[in-house]
Amino acid sequence: MKKRNLTQLLLIATVALQFSGNLAAQEVRGGQETKSTEAKRGRFFDWGNYAMFVHWGLYSRIGNKWEGKTYYGNSEWIMNKNMADIPVDEYKATARNFNPDRFDAKQLAQLAKDAGMKYIIITSKHHDGFAMYHSQCNKFNIVDATPFKRDPMKELSEACKELGLGFGFYYSHNQDWTYPGGTGGPKVDHDGNPKTFDDYFYEKCLPQVEEITKNYGDMELIWFDTPGGIPAKYAQQLVDVVHRNQPGALVSGRVGFNMGDYRTLGDMEVPLTNIEGLWEGVDVTNDSWGYAWYDQNWKTPGQILNYLISTIARGGTYMLNVGPDPSGQVPETAQMFLRLAGKWIARYPQVIYSAGASPWEHALPWGDVVVNEGKLYLAIFKWPTSGKLCLPGLESEIASVKLLTDGKPQKLNFVKEGKWTVISVPYSAPEKLVSVIELSPKGEIKVDNTQSVDPEFGLTLSAKYATAENGRVVNRKWMEKFGEWKFKYQVSDWSENTRTVWEFEIKTPGRYFFEITASGSGPRVWNIKTDEGREVQNRQNTSEIYHTQPVGWLTFDKAGKHSVTVCMPERERANTSLAAIKITPFE
Q1: Which candidate, 435, 63, 478, places its Cα nearest to that of 286?
Q2: Is 178 inside any structural domain?
Q3: Contact 293/281 with Cβ under 8 angstroms?
Q4: What are 234-262's pLDDT values in tens digits?
Q5: Which residue among 23, 26, 117, 274 sits deepest, i.e. has the most Cβ atoms within 10 Å of its Cβ?
Protein backbone atom coordinates (compact mmCIF):
# COMPACT_ATOMS: atom_id res chain seq x y z
CA MET A 1 0.00 0.00 0.00
CA LYS A 2 1.23 3.45 -0.89
CA LYS A 3 2.32 5.58 2.08
CA ARG A 4 0.43 8.82 2.70
CA ASN A 5 1.22 11.85 4.80
CA LEU A 6 -0.79 12.79 7.89
CA THR A 7 -2.94 15.38 6.06
CA GLN A 8 -3.99 12.83 3.44
CA LEU A 9 -4.89 10.22 6.07
CA LEU A 10 -6.96 12.70 8.07
CA LEU A 11 -8.83 13.81 4.93
CA ILE A 12 -9.60 10.23 3.91
CA ALA A 13 -10.81 9.40 7.42
CA THR A 14 -13.05 12.48 7.50
CA VAL A 15 -14.65 11.66 4.14
CA ALA A 16 -15.18 8.02 5.16
CA LEU A 17 -16.82 8.96 8.47
CA GLN A 18 -19.11 11.50 6.85
CA PHE A 19 -20.03 9.11 4.05
CA SER A 20 -20.92 6.34 6.54
CA GLY A 21 -22.86 8.88 8.61
CA ASN A 22 -24.90 9.87 5.57
CA LEU A 23 -25.70 6.21 4.88
CA ALA A 24 -26.77 5.70 8.48
CA ALA A 25 -29.08 8.72 8.28
CA GLN A 26 -30.67 7.29 5.17
CA GLU A 27 -31.24 3.92 6.86
CA VAL A 28 -32.83 5.53 9.93
CA ARG A 29 -35.15 7.79 7.87
CA GLY A 30 -35.91 5.26 5.15
CA GLY A 31 -34.39 7.51 2.50
CA GLN A 32 -36.79 10.37 3.21
CA GLU A 33 -34.01 12.84 3.96
CA THR A 34 -32.32 12.01 0.68
CA LYS A 35 -35.53 12.60 -1.29
CA SER A 36 -36.20 15.83 0.57
CA THR A 37 -32.67 17.10 -0.05
CA GLU A 38 -32.78 16.20 -3.74
CA ALA A 39 -36.08 18.04 -4.11
CA LYS A 40 -34.41 21.23 -2.94
CA ARG A 41 -31.40 20.95 -5.24
CA GLY A 42 -31.01 23.13 -8.29
CA ARG A 43 -33.15 26.09 -7.27
CA PHE A 44 -32.83 27.75 -10.67
CA PHE A 45 -31.90 24.80 -12.90
CA ASP A 46 -35.32 23.35 -13.68
CA TRP A 47 -37.31 26.58 -13.38
CA GLY A 48 -34.91 29.09 -14.95
CA ASN A 49 -33.94 27.02 -18.02
CA TYR A 50 -31.17 29.47 -18.96
CA ALA A 51 -27.71 30.00 -17.47
CA MET A 52 -24.34 31.58 -18.17
CA PHE A 53 -21.23 29.41 -18.48
CA VAL A 54 -17.88 31.20 -18.12
CA HIS A 55 -14.55 29.78 -19.29
CA TRP A 56 -11.76 31.97 -17.92
CA GLY A 57 -8.16 31.16 -17.07
CA LEU A 58 -4.50 31.46 -18.11
CA TYR A 59 -5.52 30.33 -21.59
CA SER A 60 -7.50 33.59 -21.85
CA ARG A 61 -4.20 35.47 -21.56
CA ILE A 62 -2.72 33.39 -24.40
CA GLY A 63 -5.84 33.73 -26.57
CA ASN A 64 -4.82 30.94 -29.00
CA LYS A 65 -1.58 32.60 -30.09
CA TRP A 66 1.68 30.97 -28.95
CA GLU A 67 5.14 32.02 -30.10
CA GLY A 68 3.66 34.04 -32.93
CA LYS A 69 1.45 31.26 -34.30
CA THR A 70 -2.34 31.13 -34.10
CA TYR A 71 -3.94 27.81 -33.17
CA TYR A 72 -7.59 27.38 -34.17
CA GLY A 73 -9.95 25.66 -31.79
CA ASN A 74 -10.82 25.66 -28.10
CA SER A 75 -8.47 28.07 -26.36
CA GLU A 76 -8.56 26.22 -23.03
CA TRP A 77 -6.87 23.28 -24.78
CA ILE A 78 -3.89 25.37 -26.01
CA MET A 79 -1.46 23.25 -23.92
CA ASN A 80 -2.58 20.02 -25.59
CA LYS A 81 -0.28 18.24 -28.04
CA ASN A 82 -2.93 18.65 -30.75
CA MET A 83 -2.74 22.43 -30.27
CA ALA A 84 0.45 24.31 -29.25
CA ASP A 85 1.88 21.45 -27.11
CA ILE A 86 3.19 23.89 -24.49
CA PRO A 87 5.60 22.45 -21.88
CA VAL A 88 4.32 22.56 -18.31
CA ASP A 89 6.95 24.98 -16.97
CA GLU A 90 6.47 27.39 -19.88
CA TYR A 91 2.71 27.37 -19.46
CA LYS A 92 2.90 27.93 -15.71
CA ALA A 93 5.28 30.85 -16.29
CA THR A 94 2.56 32.74 -18.19
CA ALA A 95 0.84 33.32 -14.85
CA ARG A 96 3.41 36.05 -14.14
CA ASN A 97 1.83 38.12 -16.95
CA PHE A 98 -1.83 37.37 -16.21
CA ASN A 99 -3.37 40.56 -14.83
CA PRO A 100 -7.05 40.93 -15.84
CA ASP A 101 -7.30 44.37 -14.28
CA ARG A 102 -10.59 45.27 -16.01
CA PHE A 103 -12.49 42.35 -14.48
CA ASP A 104 -15.65 43.59 -12.78
CA ALA A 105 -17.71 40.93 -11.01
CA LYS A 106 -20.79 43.13 -10.75
CA GLN A 107 -20.59 43.92 -14.45
CA LEU A 108 -20.41 40.23 -15.38
CA ALA A 109 -23.28 39.32 -13.07
CA GLN A 110 -25.34 42.21 -14.45
CA LEU A 111 -24.67 40.97 -18.00
CA ALA A 112 -26.07 37.56 -17.07
CA LYS A 113 -29.13 39.18 -15.51
CA ASP A 114 -29.68 41.49 -18.48
CA ALA A 115 -29.41 38.46 -20.77
CA GLY A 116 -32.23 36.75 -18.87
CA MET A 117 -29.97 34.08 -17.36
CA LYS A 118 -30.70 32.81 -13.86
CA TYR A 119 -27.31 31.56 -12.65
CA ILE A 120 -23.61 31.60 -13.48
CA ILE A 121 -21.24 28.61 -13.58
CA ILE A 122 -17.56 29.57 -13.88
CA THR A 123 -14.31 27.62 -14.20
CA SER A 124 -12.62 27.29 -10.81
CA LYS A 125 -9.99 24.96 -12.31
CA HIS A 126 -9.82 23.74 -15.88
CA HIS A 127 -7.65 20.96 -17.34
CA ASP A 128 -4.59 23.21 -17.15
CA GLY A 129 -4.66 22.93 -13.36
CA PHE A 130 -4.73 26.70 -12.72
CA ALA A 131 -7.15 27.75 -9.98
CA MET A 132 -9.11 30.95 -10.59
CA TYR A 133 -9.69 31.36 -6.86
CA HIS A 134 -7.44 31.57 -3.79
CA SER A 135 -6.66 27.90 -3.18
CA GLN A 136 -4.93 27.16 0.11
CA CYS A 137 -3.72 23.71 -0.92
CA ASN A 138 -1.96 24.68 -4.17
CA LYS A 139 -0.12 27.89 -5.01
CA PHE A 140 -0.81 27.67 -8.75
CA ASN A 141 -3.76 30.05 -8.47
CA ILE A 142 -4.74 33.58 -9.47
CA VAL A 143 -3.94 35.13 -6.08
CA ASP A 144 -0.56 33.53 -5.37
CA ALA A 145 0.84 33.14 -8.90
CA THR A 146 -0.23 36.33 -10.69
CA PRO A 147 0.08 40.11 -10.22
CA PHE A 148 -3.74 40.30 -10.03
CA LYS A 149 -3.66 39.24 -6.34
CA ARG A 150 -7.47 39.16 -5.98
CA ASP A 151 -9.96 36.34 -5.67
CA PRO A 152 -12.42 37.04 -8.52
CA MET A 153 -14.55 34.05 -7.55
CA LYS A 154 -15.25 35.57 -4.14
CA GLU A 155 -16.21 38.81 -5.87
CA LEU A 156 -18.45 37.07 -8.39
CA SER A 157 -20.22 34.89 -5.84
CA GLU A 158 -21.07 38.01 -3.84
CA ALA A 159 -22.22 39.89 -6.96
CA CYS A 160 -24.52 37.02 -7.95
CA LYS A 161 -26.03 36.94 -4.46
CA GLU A 162 -26.62 40.69 -4.57
CA LEU A 163 -28.45 40.44 -7.92
CA GLY A 164 -30.46 37.33 -7.01
CA LEU A 165 -28.58 35.00 -9.35
CA GLY A 166 -27.48 31.48 -8.60
CA PHE A 167 -23.76 30.68 -8.59
CA GLY A 168 -21.66 27.57 -9.08
CA PHE A 169 -18.33 26.21 -10.18
CA TYR A 170 -16.88 24.15 -13.00
CA TYR A 171 -14.08 21.84 -11.78
CA SER A 172 -11.95 19.51 -13.90
CA HIS A 173 -11.65 16.52 -11.57
CA ASN A 174 -9.83 14.04 -13.79
CA GLN A 175 -7.53 16.00 -16.09
CA ASP A 176 -4.80 18.19 -14.64
CA TRP A 177 -1.97 18.86 -17.08
CA THR A 178 0.35 20.64 -14.64
CA TYR A 179 0.06 18.67 -11.39
CA PRO A 180 2.06 15.42 -11.04
CA GLY A 181 -0.26 12.40 -11.20
CA GLY A 182 -3.23 14.18 -12.75
CA THR A 183 -4.49 12.73 -16.02
CA GLY A 184 -2.44 14.32 -18.79
CA GLY A 185 0.01 15.77 -16.26
CA PRO A 186 3.63 14.94 -15.34
CA LYS A 187 4.36 11.43 -14.09
CA VAL A 188 6.98 12.60 -11.60
CA ASP A 189 7.36 15.58 -9.29
CA HIS A 190 10.19 18.15 -9.44
CA ASP A 191 12.40 15.81 -7.43
CA GLY A 192 11.86 12.94 -9.86
CA ASN A 193 9.60 10.95 -7.54
CA PRO A 194 6.87 8.95 -9.35
CA LYS A 195 3.34 10.28 -8.84
CA THR A 196 0.00 8.57 -9.40
CA PHE A 197 -3.57 9.71 -9.81
CA ASP A 198 -4.06 8.83 -6.16
CA ASP A 199 -1.49 11.48 -5.22
CA TYR A 200 -3.15 14.13 -7.37
CA PHE A 201 -6.62 13.29 -6.11
CA TYR A 202 -5.86 13.45 -2.40
CA GLU A 203 -3.26 16.21 -2.52
CA LYS A 204 -5.10 18.58 -4.85
CA CYS A 205 -8.44 17.54 -6.34
CA LEU A 206 -10.40 16.53 -3.25
CA PRO A 207 -9.05 19.38 -1.07
CA GLN A 208 -9.88 21.92 -3.77
CA VAL A 209 -13.43 20.62 -4.14
CA GLU A 210 -13.73 20.96 -0.37
CA GLU A 211 -12.55 24.57 -0.73
CA ILE A 212 -14.90 25.63 -3.50
CA THR A 213 -17.91 24.05 -1.82
CA LYS A 214 -17.21 25.59 1.60
CA ASN A 215 -15.91 29.11 0.98
CA TYR A 216 -18.17 30.74 -1.63
CA GLY A 217 -21.68 30.68 -0.25
CA ASP A 218 -24.66 28.71 -1.50
CA MET A 219 -24.18 26.91 -4.80
CA GLU A 220 -26.56 26.17 -7.63
CA LEU A 221 -24.46 23.28 -8.93
CA ILE A 222 -20.95 21.90 -9.31
CA TRP A 223 -20.04 21.11 -12.91
CA PHE A 224 -17.41 18.37 -13.10
CA ASP A 225 -15.88 17.50 -16.46
CA THR A 226 -14.33 14.60 -18.40
CA PRO A 227 -14.19 11.65 -15.97
CA GLY A 228 -12.27 9.58 -18.52
CA GLY A 229 -11.20 6.19 -17.19
CA ILE A 230 -10.83 6.98 -13.50
CA PRO A 231 -12.29 4.45 -11.04
CA ALA A 232 -15.80 5.21 -9.77
CA LYS A 233 -14.62 5.51 -6.16
CA TYR A 234 -13.07 8.91 -6.87
CA ALA A 235 -16.25 10.30 -8.42
CA GLN A 236 -18.30 9.01 -5.50
CA GLN A 237 -16.14 10.87 -2.99
CA LEU A 238 -16.55 14.11 -4.93
CA VAL A 239 -20.32 13.70 -5.14
CA ASP A 240 -20.45 13.10 -1.38
CA VAL A 241 -18.38 16.20 -0.66
CA VAL A 242 -20.66 18.38 -2.78
CA HIS A 243 -23.87 17.01 -1.29
CA ARG A 244 -22.50 17.33 2.23
CA ASN A 245 -21.14 20.88 1.91
CA GLN A 246 -23.81 22.13 -0.51
CA PRO A 247 -27.05 20.21 0.11
CA GLY A 248 -28.88 22.52 -2.29
CA ALA A 249 -26.46 22.01 -5.18
CA LEU A 250 -26.78 19.65 -8.13
CA VAL A 251 -23.85 17.60 -9.42
CA SER A 252 -23.44 17.53 -13.19
CA GLY A 253 -23.64 14.27 -15.09
CA ARG A 254 -20.06 14.65 -16.26
CA VAL A 255 -18.80 13.56 -12.87
CA GLY A 256 -19.21 10.14 -14.48
CA PHE A 257 -20.65 6.71 -13.67
CA ASN A 258 -24.28 7.94 -13.69
CA MET A 259 -23.65 9.60 -10.32
CA GLY A 260 -24.74 13.07 -11.35
CA ASP A 261 -28.09 14.61 -10.45
CA TYR A 262 -28.83 15.40 -14.08
CA ARG A 263 -27.56 14.63 -17.58
CA THR A 264 -25.30 16.90 -19.64
CA LEU A 265 -25.37 16.42 -23.41
CA GLY A 266 -22.32 16.72 -25.65
CA ASP A 267 -20.79 20.14 -26.20
CA MET A 268 -22.79 22.32 -28.61
CA GLU A 269 -25.57 19.72 -28.98
CA VAL A 270 -29.30 20.48 -29.31
CA PRO A 271 -31.28 17.24 -29.62
CA LEU A 272 -33.85 16.72 -32.36
CA THR A 273 -36.36 14.90 -30.13
CA ASN A 274 -37.51 15.30 -26.55
CA ILE A 275 -35.42 13.83 -23.71
CA GLU A 276 -36.99 12.79 -20.42
CA GLY A 277 -35.66 13.82 -17.02
CA LEU A 278 -33.37 16.64 -15.92
CA TRP A 279 -30.78 17.52 -18.54
CA GLU A 280 -28.88 20.47 -19.94
CA GLY A 281 -27.34 21.51 -23.22
CA VAL A 282 -24.11 23.52 -23.16
CA ASP A 283 -23.16 25.85 -25.98
CA VAL A 284 -20.84 28.71 -26.93
CA THR A 285 -21.56 32.28 -27.99
CA ASN A 286 -18.96 31.92 -30.75
CA ASP A 287 -16.76 28.87 -31.60
CA SER A 288 -14.40 28.58 -28.60
CA TRP A 289 -15.17 28.23 -24.90
CA GLY A 290 -12.21 30.28 -23.70
CA TYR A 291 -11.18 33.56 -25.34
CA ALA A 292 -9.54 33.25 -28.77
CA TRP A 293 -8.21 36.47 -30.30
CA TYR A 294 -9.54 35.75 -33.81
CA ASP A 295 -12.97 34.36 -32.93
CA GLN A 296 -15.68 36.89 -33.82
CA ASN A 297 -18.26 34.34 -34.98
CA TRP A 298 -20.86 35.41 -32.43
CA LYS A 299 -24.35 33.95 -32.29
CA THR A 300 -26.87 36.64 -33.18
CA PRO A 301 -29.75 37.43 -30.79
CA GLY A 302 -32.05 35.42 -33.05
CA GLN A 303 -29.73 32.42 -33.02
CA ILE A 304 -29.39 32.58 -29.24
CA LEU A 305 -33.17 32.55 -28.84
CA ASN A 306 -33.53 29.77 -31.40
CA TYR A 307 -31.10 27.48 -29.56
CA LEU A 308 -32.52 28.43 -26.16
CA ILE A 309 -36.16 27.84 -27.07
CA SER A 310 -35.36 24.66 -29.00
CA THR A 311 -33.54 23.25 -25.96
CA ILE A 312 -36.43 24.09 -23.63
CA ALA A 313 -38.88 22.62 -26.16
CA ARG A 314 -36.96 19.34 -26.04
CA GLY A 315 -37.23 19.36 -22.24
CA GLY A 316 -33.84 20.76 -21.25
CA THR A 317 -31.97 23.69 -19.71
CA TYR A 318 -29.63 25.79 -21.85
CA MET A 319 -26.25 27.02 -20.56
CA LEU A 320 -24.54 29.46 -22.91
CA ASN A 321 -20.84 30.23 -22.53
CA VAL A 322 -18.86 33.45 -22.62
CA GLY A 323 -15.06 33.71 -22.59
CA PRO A 324 -13.64 36.89 -21.01
CA ASP A 325 -10.62 38.39 -22.78
CA PRO A 326 -7.16 38.90 -21.20
CA SER A 327 -8.38 42.03 -19.41
CA GLY A 328 -11.30 40.15 -17.83
CA GLN A 329 -13.99 41.68 -20.06
CA VAL A 330 -16.58 39.80 -22.11
CA PRO A 331 -16.13 40.97 -25.74
CA GLU A 332 -18.43 43.87 -26.62
CA THR A 333 -20.33 42.20 -29.49
CA ALA A 334 -21.16 39.18 -27.34
CA GLN A 335 -22.46 41.49 -24.63
CA MET A 336 -24.65 43.37 -27.08
CA PHE A 337 -26.18 40.23 -28.61
CA LEU A 338 -26.83 38.66 -25.21
CA ARG A 339 -28.59 41.79 -23.97
CA LEU A 340 -30.74 42.06 -27.10
CA ALA A 341 -31.87 38.46 -26.60
CA GLY A 342 -32.46 39.29 -22.95
CA LYS A 343 -34.77 42.17 -23.86
CA TRP A 344 -36.90 39.73 -25.86
CA ILE A 345 -37.00 37.33 -22.89
CA ALA A 346 -38.14 40.18 -20.63
CA ARG A 347 -41.14 40.68 -22.95
CA TYR A 348 -41.96 36.96 -23.17
CA PRO A 349 -40.80 35.36 -19.89
CA GLN A 350 -43.50 32.69 -20.05
CA VAL A 351 -41.74 31.15 -23.08
CA ILE A 352 -38.57 30.57 -21.02
CA TYR A 353 -39.07 30.38 -17.25
CA SER A 354 -40.78 27.24 -15.94
CA ALA A 355 -41.63 26.30 -19.53
CA GLY A 356 -41.73 22.63 -20.44
CA ALA A 357 -41.25 20.37 -23.42
CA SER A 358 -43.29 20.46 -26.61
CA PRO A 359 -45.98 17.75 -26.94
CA TRP A 360 -44.96 17.47 -30.60
CA GLU A 361 -41.56 16.24 -29.32
CA HIS A 362 -39.75 17.83 -32.26
CA ALA A 363 -39.42 21.20 -33.97
CA LEU A 364 -42.00 22.36 -36.49
CA PRO A 365 -41.12 23.81 -39.93
CA TRP A 366 -41.75 27.40 -38.79
CA GLY A 367 -40.45 27.18 -35.21
CA ASP A 368 -41.11 25.37 -31.95
CA VAL A 369 -43.57 25.03 -29.08
CA VAL A 370 -43.25 25.10 -25.29
CA VAL A 371 -45.86 24.46 -22.60
CA ASN A 372 -46.39 26.66 -19.55
CA GLU A 373 -49.27 26.37 -17.07
CA GLY A 374 -51.37 24.38 -19.52
CA LYS A 375 -50.95 26.83 -22.40
CA LEU A 376 -49.08 26.30 -25.66
CA TYR A 377 -46.63 29.00 -26.70
CA LEU A 378 -45.83 28.93 -30.40
CA ALA A 379 -42.38 30.46 -30.98
CA ILE A 380 -42.30 31.43 -34.64
CA PHE A 381 -38.81 31.77 -36.10
CA LYS A 382 -40.05 31.95 -39.71
CA TRP A 383 -43.15 34.09 -40.11
CA PRO A 384 -45.69 32.97 -42.76
CA THR A 385 -46.16 35.67 -45.40
CA SER A 386 -49.37 33.93 -46.58
CA GLY A 387 -51.27 35.19 -43.53
CA LYS A 388 -51.90 31.60 -42.43
CA LEU A 389 -49.96 29.71 -39.75
CA CYS A 390 -50.58 25.99 -40.03
CA LEU A 391 -50.31 23.95 -36.82
CA PRO A 392 -50.37 20.20 -37.48
CA GLY A 393 -51.76 17.44 -35.31
CA LEU A 394 -53.39 19.35 -32.44
CA GLU A 395 -56.31 17.17 -31.33
CA SER A 396 -57.43 19.25 -28.33
CA GLU A 397 -60.30 21.70 -28.54
CA ILE A 398 -59.16 25.32 -28.45
CA ALA A 399 -60.42 27.98 -26.04
CA SER A 400 -58.50 30.90 -27.51
CA VAL A 401 -55.58 31.92 -29.72
CA LYS A 402 -53.75 35.21 -29.09
CA LEU A 403 -50.84 36.98 -30.70
CA LEU A 404 -48.62 38.33 -27.93
CA THR A 405 -47.14 41.79 -28.44
CA ASP A 406 -45.76 44.60 -26.28
CA GLY A 407 -49.28 45.96 -25.98
CA LYS A 408 -52.58 44.17 -25.50
CA PRO A 409 -52.68 40.56 -26.81
CA GLN A 410 -54.45 40.35 -30.15
CA LYS A 411 -57.14 37.70 -30.55
CA LEU A 412 -56.63 35.57 -33.67
CA ASN A 413 -59.18 33.63 -35.69
CA PHE A 414 -58.61 29.98 -36.48
CA VAL A 415 -60.28 27.07 -38.24
CA LYS A 416 -59.85 23.33 -38.14
CA GLU A 417 -59.02 21.73 -41.51
CA GLY A 418 -58.68 18.00 -40.94
CA LYS A 419 -55.72 17.44 -38.61
CA TRP A 420 -54.53 21.01 -39.08
CA THR A 421 -55.32 24.13 -37.11
CA VAL A 422 -55.05 27.10 -39.47
CA ILE A 423 -54.53 30.40 -37.64
CA SER A 424 -55.09 33.72 -39.40
CA VAL A 425 -52.11 35.99 -38.67
CA PRO A 426 -50.87 39.42 -39.85
CA TYR A 427 -48.88 39.37 -43.08
CA SER A 428 -45.86 40.92 -41.34
CA ALA A 429 -44.12 39.48 -38.28
CA PRO A 430 -44.83 41.55 -35.14
CA GLU A 431 -41.38 40.69 -33.74
CA LYS A 432 -38.04 41.02 -35.47
CA LEU A 433 -36.52 38.09 -33.55
CA VAL A 434 -39.20 35.57 -32.56
CA SER A 435 -42.96 36.14 -32.63
CA VAL A 436 -45.15 34.38 -30.05
CA ILE A 437 -48.70 33.04 -30.22
CA GLU A 438 -50.43 31.85 -27.04
CA LEU A 439 -52.85 28.98 -27.62
CA SER A 440 -55.13 27.96 -24.74
CA PRO A 441 -56.55 24.44 -25.15
CA LYS A 442 -59.67 23.15 -23.44
CA GLY A 443 -58.57 20.49 -21.00
CA GLU A 444 -55.74 18.07 -21.67
CA ILE A 445 -53.26 18.74 -24.47
CA LYS A 446 -53.46 15.99 -27.09
CA VAL A 447 -51.24 15.89 -30.16
CA ASP A 448 -50.56 13.62 -33.13
CA ASN A 449 -46.84 14.31 -33.50
CA THR A 450 -46.41 12.89 -37.00
CA GLN A 451 -43.90 14.94 -38.99
CA SER A 452 -45.91 17.20 -41.31
CA VAL A 453 -45.10 19.13 -44.48
CA ASP A 454 -46.01 22.77 -43.95
CA PRO A 455 -48.03 24.22 -46.89
CA GLU A 456 -45.69 27.24 -47.01
CA PHE A 457 -42.34 26.16 -45.57
CA GLY A 458 -42.31 22.48 -46.50
CA LEU A 459 -40.33 20.10 -44.27
CA THR A 460 -36.76 18.91 -43.79
CA LEU A 461 -36.61 15.40 -42.39
CA SER A 462 -33.42 14.33 -40.62
CA ALA A 463 -32.19 10.77 -40.91
CA LYS A 464 -33.05 10.62 -37.19
CA TYR A 465 -36.68 10.07 -38.24
CA ALA A 466 -35.96 7.46 -40.91
CA THR A 467 -36.20 3.69 -40.85
CA ALA A 468 -33.22 2.13 -42.61
CA GLU A 469 -33.65 -1.37 -44.00
CA ASN A 470 -30.26 -3.06 -44.51
CA GLY A 471 -28.50 0.12 -43.43
CA ARG A 472 -27.64 2.04 -40.25
CA VAL A 473 -28.92 5.29 -38.80
CA VAL A 474 -26.07 6.77 -36.74
CA ASN A 475 -25.40 10.12 -35.09
CA ARG A 476 -22.14 11.31 -36.60
CA LYS A 477 -19.96 13.61 -34.49
CA TRP A 478 -16.98 15.53 -35.83
CA MET A 479 -14.85 18.61 -35.20
CA GLU A 480 -14.84 21.62 -37.53
CA LYS A 481 -11.93 23.03 -35.54
CA PHE A 482 -10.25 21.46 -32.52
CA GLY A 483 -13.00 21.09 -29.92
CA GLU A 484 -15.75 22.66 -32.08
CA TRP A 485 -18.23 19.79 -32.30
CA LYS A 486 -20.88 19.20 -34.94
CA PHE A 487 -23.60 16.54 -34.95
CA LYS A 488 -25.64 15.05 -37.76
CA TYR A 489 -27.74 11.90 -38.02
CA GLN A 490 -27.07 9.95 -41.18
CA VAL A 491 -27.90 6.72 -42.98
CA SER A 492 -24.68 4.85 -43.76
CA ASP A 493 -23.49 1.39 -44.87
CA TRP A 494 -25.40 1.53 -48.15
CA SER A 495 -25.86 -1.56 -50.33
CA GLU A 496 -28.10 -2.45 -53.25
CA ASN A 497 -30.68 -3.67 -50.70
CA THR A 498 -30.68 -0.58 -48.50
CA ARG A 499 -34.01 1.20 -48.29
CA THR A 500 -34.51 4.36 -46.22
CA VAL A 501 -38.12 5.17 -45.42
CA TRP A 502 -39.62 8.40 -44.07
CA GLU A 503 -43.25 8.89 -43.05
CA PHE A 504 -44.99 12.27 -42.96
CA GLU A 505 -48.30 14.06 -43.36
CA ILE A 506 -49.30 16.45 -46.14
CA LYS A 507 -52.22 18.88 -45.94
CA THR A 508 -52.88 19.35 -49.64
CA PRO A 509 -52.52 16.97 -52.63
CA GLY A 510 -50.24 18.21 -55.39
CA ARG A 511 -46.64 18.53 -56.53
CA TYR A 512 -43.72 18.56 -54.12
CA PHE A 513 -40.04 19.14 -54.79
CA PHE A 514 -37.54 16.73 -53.22
CA GLU A 515 -33.91 17.39 -52.31
CA ILE A 516 -31.35 15.27 -50.47
CA THR A 517 -28.58 16.29 -48.07
CA ALA A 518 -25.67 13.90 -48.34
CA SER A 519 -21.92 13.44 -48.25
CA GLY A 520 -19.74 11.04 -50.21
CA SER A 521 -16.83 10.82 -52.60
CA GLY A 522 -18.13 11.45 -56.10
CA PRO A 523 -21.30 11.22 -58.21
CA ARG A 524 -24.21 9.30 -56.65
CA VAL A 525 -27.57 8.22 -58.06
CA TRP A 526 -30.64 8.67 -55.87
CA ASN A 527 -34.08 7.15 -56.36
CA ILE A 528 -37.13 8.33 -54.40
CA LYS A 529 -40.42 6.43 -54.60
CA THR A 530 -43.76 7.35 -53.00
CA ASP A 531 -46.28 5.04 -51.36
CA GLU A 532 -48.58 5.88 -54.32
CA GLY A 533 -46.12 4.35 -56.77
CA ARG A 534 -44.51 7.43 -58.31
CA GLU A 535 -40.74 7.80 -58.43
CA VAL A 536 -38.00 10.21 -59.41
CA GLN A 537 -34.30 9.50 -60.00
CA ASN A 538 -31.28 11.77 -60.40
CA ARG A 539 -27.49 11.77 -60.31
CA GLN A 540 -25.68 14.39 -58.24
CA ASN A 541 -22.11 14.93 -57.10
CA THR A 542 -21.14 14.48 -53.44
CA SER A 543 -18.12 15.46 -51.34
CA GLU A 544 -16.97 14.95 -47.77
CA ILE A 545 -18.91 18.13 -46.86
CA TYR A 546 -22.69 17.76 -46.59
CA HIS A 547 -24.50 19.42 -49.49
CA THR A 548 -28.18 19.71 -50.36
CA GLN A 549 -28.88 18.70 -53.96
CA PRO A 550 -32.09 18.53 -56.03
CA VAL A 551 -33.63 15.22 -57.05
CA GLY A 552 -36.92 16.29 -58.62
CA TRP A 553 -40.72 16.67 -58.43
CA LEU A 554 -43.20 14.10 -57.13
CA THR A 555 -47.00 14.27 -57.03
CA PHE A 556 -49.29 13.08 -54.23
CA ASP A 557 -52.92 12.41 -55.10
CA LYS A 558 -54.34 12.42 -51.58
CA ALA A 559 -53.91 14.42 -48.38
CA GLY A 560 -52.93 12.62 -45.18
CA LYS A 561 -50.11 10.29 -44.21
CA HIS A 562 -47.57 9.21 -46.82
CA SER A 563 -44.16 7.65 -47.03
CA VAL A 564 -41.22 7.84 -49.42
CA THR A 565 -38.46 5.30 -49.90
CA VAL A 566 -34.92 6.36 -50.88
CA CYS A 567 -32.44 3.95 -52.42
CA MET A 568 -29.20 4.05 -54.44
CA PRO A 569 -29.80 1.92 -57.56
CA GLU A 570 -26.27 2.09 -58.99
CA ARG A 571 -22.95 0.74 -57.73
CA GLU A 572 -21.29 3.95 -56.51
CA ARG A 573 -22.35 3.82 -52.86
CA ALA A 574 -19.15 3.54 -50.80
CA ASN A 575 -18.59 6.16 -48.08
CA THR A 576 -22.02 7.68 -48.70
CA SER A 577 -24.08 9.23 -45.93
CA LEU A 578 -27.64 10.49 -46.34
CA ALA A 579 -28.44 13.09 -43.68
CA ALA A 580 -31.87 14.41 -44.69
CA ILE A 581 -34.53 14.89 -47.32
CA LYS A 582 -36.22 18.23 -47.93
CA ILE A 583 -39.81 18.46 -49.20
CA THR A 584 -41.05 21.77 -50.65
CA PRO A 585 -44.64 22.28 -51.86
CA PHE A 586 -45.38 23.88 -55.21
CA GLU A 587 -46.53 27.44 -54.61
Answers
A1: 63
A2: yes
A3: no
A4: 999 999 999 999 999 999 999 999 999 99
A5: 117
